[in-house]
Amino acid sequence: MADIADQANDLVEMSDTLALKEVRSRKPDAEETGFCLLCGESVEAGHRWCDVDHRDRWEKERKRNA
User: Fold this and answer.
1) Taking a C-beta distance cutoff of 8 angstroms, is the pair 49, 36 a contact?
2) Distances (CA, A) of 55 to 1, 44, 63
C-alpha cells in the first residue's frame, strides 16, 4: 500500500504532466516569419527571435500594451 509520500509524488507528477500538456497545446501569440519579431534579423526555421533578450523584450512590450 502506498504511503502518503508516494501519493503526494503521484499527484505532483500528474499535475506536472497536465501542465506540460496544456502549455504544449497553446498556439503561439505570434507566428514565426523567418525574421526576429523584435529587430527583423533573419532567424532559423522554428524560431521567432534572434536571441533570448529579444524574446524577453518582445514579451515585455506585449504585456505592457495589453
Assistant:
1) yes
2) 48, 14, 12
Buried b (16+ CB within 10 A) or exposed e, 15-50: eeeeeeeeeeeeeeeeeeeeebbbeeeebeeeebbb
Distance CA 27, CA 61 (A): 19
CB 51 within 8 A of CB 44: no
**Residue 7 grid coordinates:** 501519493
For the stretch 9-49, pLDDT in tens is: 999 999 989 888 887 776 667 889 999 999 999 999 999 99
Over 90: is that where the pLDDT of 66 sits?
no
Output the pLDDT for position 55. Answer: 93
Which residues fall within 8 angstroms of residue 34, CB to CB, at 6 or more apart? 42, 43, 45
